[in-house]
Amino acid sequence: MSTKASRVTARLMLAPAVILLLGWMLVPLTMTVVFSFQRYLPMRGGFQGWVGFDNYRSFVTSSAFWPSVQATLIIVGSVLIITVALGVLLAVLLDQPMWGQGIVRILVIAPFFVMPTVSALVWKNMFMDPVNGLFSHLWRLFGATPVSWLSEASMPSIVLIVSWQWLPFATLILLTAIQSLDSEQQEAAEMDGAGPINRFFFITLPHLSRAITIVLLIQTIFLLAIFAEIFVTTQGAFGTRTLTYLIYQRVLESQNVGLGSAGGVYAIILANIVALFLMRIVGKNLDR
Amino acid sequence: MARSVTTTRKTFNTVLAWSIGLLIFFPILWTVLTSFKTEAQAVSTPPVWFFFDWTLDNYRTVLDRSDYSRFLWNSIFIAGGSTVLGLIIAIPAAWSMAFVPSHRTKDILLWMLSTKMLPAVGVIYPIYLIFIRMGLLDSRTGLVVILMLINLPIIIWMLYTYFKEIPAEILEASRMDGAGLREEITYVLLPMALPGIASTALLNLILAWNEAFWTLNLTAAKAAPLTAFIASYSSPEGLFYAKLSAASTMAIAPILILGWFSQKQLVRGLTFGAVK
User: Fold this and answer.
1) Residue B272 pLDDT greater than 60, yes or no
2) Are the C-beta atoms of A149 and A139 separated by less than 8 Å?
3) Which residues 159-178 in chain B show a CB within 8 A of chain A?
4) Position B262 in a domain
5) Residue B236: pLDDT band by 50, 70, 90 thresholds?
6) If phi over 0 gives left and psi between -120 and 50 gives alpha, with beta otherwise, what is residue B137?
């Protein structure tokens, strides 16, 4: 039984974390919302009056908005499909008996630990460079004309880089989930004559559904926010300007803080919708 | 009963898994190999694989750049500092929620998690302004605080799931024996929770070391860590593949090694305990 005194101490111990996070959330958020209703150009005269919802309207009616939504959806969607589909297959494979399982696992998850600026630059220069990149050597080997990947096929290139970074994450989590699968259930199904494909679809996949949902949600939140990968490769050119990057350009590059902040509020709402689903699942898990 | 596995099948699995593993690992391997080549060999056609004159020149060149050690030190300071600071704030908070829960504990935990979902780009300008006002722009202190804040929810959650696994009876017993709160935490809880705290610290070091939004946008020359140093190679002059590779290898090696030790904890930390 906790005494009243210990409960008071416990609240005091919790307080610093709560106050810090509350401040971290509320102060900048309030400022962003306030800016979003202003015409605010720090480099060109600063604060120039209140404009109501003008920034919100301008942001969605600017010619850059819909292409950026499209770019965001394509990148997030493709990376999710690729990492989850390959992640499931890879997790099933890594769960099989083999020699050197531990080493293979290390090889597979390594990309996750590479800092984003390094992976983006390594892919950009050493693989996708149209003159000296490894891909261009490969293309020439087969008599094809090397492709200038990041300008001619910018989207697939970014998707490839980001998928490479996130496949390890999906694989690792799905593998952990598969390993908690009861092997007796598998054996029973096998004895009842279920082939490997049926076992995969009727036992493994349903068992993984919760882990897959979690991977989808967590990755969505991180993928909506990818920045460095675009910053060091295309700088948002060639149709790779995502919503995050567009807001970044509005706020920090063209210093149109009002407009950018309105975009920021959209991004916050979007992230919160995704977060809501994630919290539901995580919350349910807390009760167990 | 273990299922019998034929050698053929095991061989097939092994070959397939190793091929895929090596394919995924290849960009890293290629970077490491290139870092030991000369710049001419690094771009030679056809590419050279293993048989070239291995050289450490690129490492020497990168290290000789007068500022490399500063970037490295900044990375260590920022990642280390934010981890230590985060633990100091998170340990009491997690202890409190794990052992003296109230009816609001679950809501507080979920709310903390929700602050992690705040898109950085949505609050970059306010933070930028606050940093200018407080003289924190391009300072290590500023980044330590920001990275501590963005990772604090993960630290608290992870510690919470570890603390939950410690039986409360043991703590009660120590209390019966007359241990005060401080003794209870120092002599009973901490030793038992040490593995959990260590893995939490490890994960946080990895996340902070690799963070590349705030570190790129809130630093210039003085406080920039390795993420920003590497980004400075994005508009290069002349031949630079081998030097880029050497710099990259040095930037990722410590974290790769730490990361390999923390695979299991990574899952728990990044899924907020939902997958263990």
Assistant:
1) yes
2) no
3) none
4) yes
5) low
6) beta
**What is the distance in angstroms between the Cα of B135 and the nearest Cα belonging to chain A?**
17
* Residue B254 within a domain: yes
* Confidence tier at B238 by pLDDT (50, 70, 90): low
What ipTM does this complex have?
0.86
Asked if B198 and B241 sit in the same domain, the reply is yes
B88 and B165 part of one domain = yes
Within a domain: B200: yes
Closest CB to A98 among B14, B115, B260: B14
A36-45, A192-201, B84-93, B203-212: which has the highest mean pLDDT?
B84-93
Tell me what pLDDT residue B1 has: 40
Is B83 found in the same domain as B44? no
Q: Establish if A282 touches chain B: CB-CB under 8 angstroms.
A: yes
Residue spans per domain, chain A: 54-287
Q: Supply the mean pLDDT for chain A.
A: 88
Q: How far is A13 from B186, CA to CA, in rounded Å?
A: 15
Pairwise CA distance, residues B263 & B14, whole Å: 21
Q: Taken in order A231, A233, A237, A241, is the CA torsion positive or negative?
A: negative
Q: Is the separation of the CB atoms in A123 and A164 below 8 Å?
A: yes
Residue among A255, A222, A244, A229 at smallest CA distance from B231: A229
A176 interface with B at CB cutoff 8 Å: yes
Residue B116 and residue B39 share a domain: no
Q: For chain A, which residues score pLDDT lower than 70?
A: 1-3, 287-288
Taking an 8 Å cut-off on Cβ atoms, the answer to whether A122 and B245 are in contact is yes
Same domain? B140 vs B33: no
Separation of first and last alpha carbons in chain B: 25
Of B13, B100, B213, the CB nearest to A2: B100
Most B CBs within 10 A among A98, A245, A272, hence the mutation to make, goes to A98
Domain-located, residue B276: no
* Domain count of the fold of chain B: 2
Q: Which residue of A has its CA nearest to B156?
A: A17
C-alpha A262/C-alpha A38 separation (Å) is 10
Q: Which single residue is written with the structure tokens 């009660």?
A: B172
Q: What CATH homologous superfamily does A54-287 map to? A: MetI-like (1.10.3720.10)
Amino acid at A67: P
CA angle B146, B152, B153 (to 5 degrees): 130
CB contacts of B241 in chain A (<8 Å) are 125-126, 132
Residues B137 and B256 in one domain: yes
Q: Please indicate, yes or no, whether residues B160 and B221 belong to a single structural domain of this protein.
A: yes
Range of the domain at B91: 66-270
The answer, yes or no, to whether residue B65 has pLDDT greater than 70, is: yes
Residues belonging to chain B: 276
Interface check for A104 against chain B (CB to CB < 8 A): the answer is yes
Q: How confident is the model at residue B4 (pLDDT cuts 50, 70, 90)?
A: low
Last residue of a domain, one of B42, B60, B78: B60
Of A2, A116, A264, the CB nearest to B121: A264
Q: How much is the pLDDT for B100?
A: 86
pTM as predicted: 0.88
